[in-house]
Structure formats: C-alpha cells, structure tokens
Amino acid sequence: MAAGRPTLPPTGPPPAPARRPTGQLPPAHQALICVSLPGLAISSDGGQLTAQGLEGFYRGGRRLLSRCRIRVAGREPQPVQARMVTADRARFVGTVRASPDAGPDPDVVVERFRHADGTERITLHSSASRPLRLPLEVSLGTDLAELGAVAAGMPGRELPATVHDTGMRWSSPTGFTVVTATPPPMDALASAGLLRWEFDLPPGGAHTVELRIRADGSGIGRAGGHSTVKPFAPARAHGDDPRVAPLLGTCVDDLQALLVRDPAHPLDISLAAGAPWRCGPAPAESLAAARMALPLGTRLAAGTLRALARTQLTEPGPEFGRIPGPLRNVGPQLPPSCTGIEATLLFPVLLAEARRWGLVEQEVTELLPAAERCLRWLRAATREGPYLPDPGPGGPVRCETQAHAHRAALLGAELLDAYDRPGGAELRQWADGLRTHFRQDFWVEDRGGGRPAAARTADGRPLPHLSGSAAHLLDTGLLAAGACAPGLLDKVQTEQLARLLGGPGLDSGWGLRSLAVKEASYNPFGHRAGAVRVHETAVAVAGLAAAGYEKEASSLLKGVLGAAETFAYRLPEMYAGEQRIEGSAPLPHPAACRPAAVAAAAGVHLLATLVGIRPDVPARTVTLSPLRSAPLGEVGLAGLRVAGHAFSARVSRLGLAMVEEAADVLQLGV
Among 63, 100, 428, 534, which one is least packed by beta carbons within 10 Å? Predict the structure, then answer.
C-alpha cells in the first residue's frame, strides 16, 4: 500500500483549446453516451472524464462537469471494461495493485456507474488477503460551456472552484454547478477541485462514494426519460436468431431515453432526433420515428401530433397549414430540402395510421382539424401542376417528396371520409393524376431496365442518379382492412426498382446506401451520398416485403441486423456504405447521432415487418402478412399494443404467422 497521502498534481486552468475547423464535429462514434433527456453523460471507454473532446455531464445542452478523474492509492485505475448497461447508464471497471506483495494480480477493483441523471457511483472492491487503507481522490472541474462551443473546439477555460457543503461549486454569469459527495470527503482542495477520502477495506470489503451534480439549484432530472414517462409497451422478441431480442430491447430503451416533453404541455411527449448533436425538436424525424414505433402503442404518436399541431402556421396566406421546419442538406446533387414540407405531409399519415393501430376516437377528432389544414396546404401548393416542389415554388421536384405527398393524399382522403369531412374525392383525383404523370415524367430509361429519377429540375430536366431515397416510393401507407395504398410506380417499374434496391449498387451488405456506388458523387461517408441510413433501409425492407420482393427485403434486413450486432445493438443514424466482405465490420460515421430516434424506431419497424402486423382497429380486425421466406427462422414478438391491449404474434420457420395474444374485440386474419 502506498504510504502517506498521495495527491493529484495541482490542476491549473488548462490552455484554451485550438479552434476546430468550421463544420467539423469532434468524433462521437467511440464515446459511451448515456442519455435521459435533458441529461447526457459522454465518456471515453477509459472511464475518466478528462475535459477532452465532448467528455462530461450535460443538462439542456450545457456542460455541467467536464473533468472527473479518480486515483486510488495514488494511481489511476487500469481500464478493463466499459459498456452501456442501459440507455442512460454506463459501467466502467478498472483495477489497481494496491498491495506490495500482490504480484502481477490486481487486488482492488474500481467500479464506476455513470448516469445521465447526473450521478456517479464509485465503488472500491478489495480482494487483498489483508486489510487495506486506501486513499481515494476525485479531481473535478468544469467550464459550464454550451455543447455547441464544445463541438466547435471553443469551450473556454476551466472555472475556479469553491468548496461548498460536501463538495465543490463553480459559477459563471450564465449559472452555476454544484457537486456533492456522499459520504462527505475528509479533505477538499478548491484550487485543484480535489475531494479526498481514506477507506479501511477488510479482505473482501467494499466502499462506495456517490457524486451528485446539481445545476442552478436543481438536479439534472429525467424530465422526459426513463423514470417519469413510460409510453411504450413492454415489447419482447424471441426466436431462432438470438439477435432479435437484444435489438428490440435496445431500440425501445433508446427511444425511451430520447423522450422530451413540451414544457407548456407536460403530458405531451415526443422524440428528440438524437444525441449528442440533435437533442432538440426535429419535426420530420419525430413524426417518422413515432410512425415506425406504432407497434409499441399510440401515446407517442398522439403527443407528437399535438405538439406539432401547436406549431402549425394558421395565418391566411400561401403557407397556411404548413408545419414549419428548417432546410436540410441532401448531398451534392440537389439544393437543400425543407423538413417542414416532409413534416406537413407526414402529419396526416401518422394520424391515419395511428387510428388504425387504436388511437382513441376523441384524440383523433381533436387532431383532425390540424390534419385537414395540412391537406389544404398540399392542395394549395399543387394548384399549378401535378407535382409538389421542394423547398418551394421554383425549386426542384423531388421523387421522395412526391412519394410523401401521394401517400398523404390517399391516407388523408380516407381519414376525411371516415369523419364525413369534405375534400377526400379531390385528394384522390389529384393522387390519380400524380400517378399518371409520375410514371411518365420520372422514369428514366436506360440499358439496365430504367430507374426513377431522383428529381426533376424547375425546367423539367430529370436528374437520373440512383438514390436510396427511391425506397420511399414503396412506402405507400396503410389503408382499411390491412391493405397497402397504391404506389406511384406501375408493376413493371416496381419490379425494376426492387431489383435496383437489392442490387450491389445500393445494397452494401450492411444495409441500403443513400447513393449507388457508381454515381459520380458517391462517398461512403456521405449522409445522402453513399452512407447507410438505417431509417431508409427499414423503409426499403418494409416496402419490398409489402410488394412481394422478399429476397431483396431479406438481404437488406440481414445487413442491418449484422451491423446492429457490431454496434452492440445501439443503431446509429448512419454508418459508412463500404461493401461488406467476409470478416469485415461496418465503419462508424464519426459524426452520427447514436442513439438516434429514427434508427431506434427503425429497429422496431424491421422486426414488425417480419411478422407483418396490419391492424384496422376501427373495423376491429388485424391481419398478419409475414415474410413467408422466414429469413431469420422462427420469430416471435410479445407485449406489443394493438387497440390499447397487449398483442403477441409469431412466425414459424415455414413462414406461417399466428396471433398468440390480442384484444377480444379483434377479428384475426392471415
């Protein structure tokens, strides 16, 4: 055992970090990110918080603690293991040789549990053969910097600490942070932010220190996350493939961690886009994720729809009915698109499909006026022709946007008819005309059988590059009696698109590339220029399965499942589109959010697609349309929600589907 009272070297203010090049984010792919919004804890796999990069505890986008380094008997623990336990908690294990006669074997295990709620528990476990007297030192510091400044490499210097109560306090013009310790430390040194204890550990004994972080007089809390709101069904997966259970469990856990509340309407919850970069509102992503998560219940859909209905533009004019949203970069081929347009088109689709899954009538009728306004905006924006330009008049006509608009028109028309509202016939007539024009104007013939154009310019010139976003053409939406809405492509064009989506240009072996390999702008890390976007892959799998192209759907599904295993089942929003070969692993995208709402919801969507659950609660029916090829063998899903009741179903190795649990009012069909 080390003699005396070893201490950490004096810690003065570190030099201001060099400014990071504009647009370059610090790498996050190797970080362990604990999430329970508005709290984050970002760590390296060593466990020590060193104030480097993104490391630290955050609340509401502000770094409350950037440094938390420990020493035991004068030495930093040797890192042994770091892993996520749940979406909001990580465990770090290190070892120390504290006895002079211990030989090569460590005799002290240092275990740290780090929570996104602003707590850290440090436990020393002794396996020495004799009693030990162990000094434990914790060195703390913070800059109280905004996440944006940290990401830009300009967080500022560490702030001076003062001893406060049983810990330390830091202040700045924008707020303060307090760290308290239990049990209280024996010594505290403000100049180094140092807390110190000495513990007597008998053989086999243990001692624990708990640190709690408070910001502006309150704890980090879990305002939308794990402890306060449980909107999701306790879904479980099982089957021949052992990966399905951890995939579903992790995806649901990540969705839970990304929940946020509307402060003015705390009963309404929705999803942030992802951590660490996009913890705020993202209308299009929130709606898309809520739609794919419908098998877990309709509460998220209802909260998301209500929150966005309050943002809807209702002043008279050309923007009446549109949901606002920022522009989004879509790669080098096209100008930015408008996420507000996508959200406006997704709103009536989510409401219509949530009704099919069992959203109660009162909530549907309350939200119906907002959906009507979205549909009025769609018809007003397409008065001059069959297509919807994006981001606005004079902009390009995107393939993906027409798919969203067509689906919104058909599902919206059915929704209006169900409640005797006018406008359904006009929407269907417009959708019929859009199909006719689209099949002619957007199909580019070539020697390979043709392809859908990614867009048409304002002067009518097609842009023929092959994009993964063409998968949205197969996402036609759910109508009555478990039927899929018609698509924009005819049967021959659909078959050709299926061949392209399953071909080597787009299918990387790890999922669907966002741009085909042979395109001039291909970049395996480009988020719209070649990277695998998990959400888009799930859209492709479900669309291919619904259209009857199970071979292509199965290949993409197995690719994402293989990637999920390498990412410990916490799917990032995207990863590199490099081709899969024997023994390889997908390359992480260093700037991808992980967890990400659309990626986590996509995992749920992929597994639900295997079983093919198609409910129609207003008609009191539920139909199963599984993948008959059973690409993963037998798969069962339990603890889902249809009509507000538990729902369980299974697909056998022969591709036969059966319902094992459902509400008594539902009639079952396969």
Answer: 100
How does pLDDT run across 67-115, given as a tens digit for each residue? 999 999 999 999 999 999 999 999 999 999 988 776 788 999 999 999 9
Q: How confident is the model at residue 23 (pLDDT cuts 50, 70, 90)?
A: low
Closest CA to 580 of 596, 564, 599, 563: 563
DSSP E strand boundaries for 165-296: 167-172, 175-182, 187-189, 194-201, 206-215, 218-219, 236-239, 259-262, 265-271
Alpha carbon 54 to chain centroid distance? 19
- Here the tokens at position 416 are 């209006």
Q: Give the whole-angstrom CA distance, residue 546 versus residue 536.
A: 15
Q: What is the CB neighbour count within 10 angstroms for residue 495?
A: 14
Phi and psi torsions of 171, nearest 5°: -130, 150
Going by DSSP bridges, is the β-strand pair 67-72/62-65 parallel, antiparallel, or unpaired? Answer: unpaired
Structure-block tokens of residue 19 = 């400014």
Give the whole-angstrom CA distance, residue 94 versus residue 110. Answer: 5
Tell me whether strands 621-624 and 667-669 are parallel, antiparallel or unpaired: parallel
CA distance 50 to 434: 57
**Residue 193's pLDDT band (cuts 50, 70, 90):** very high
Helix (H) or strand (E) holding 495: helix 491-501
Span 459-501, pLDDT tens digits: 889 999 999 999 999 999 999 999 999 999 999 999 999 999 9
**Using an 8 Å Cβ cutoff, are 631 and 602 in contact?**
no
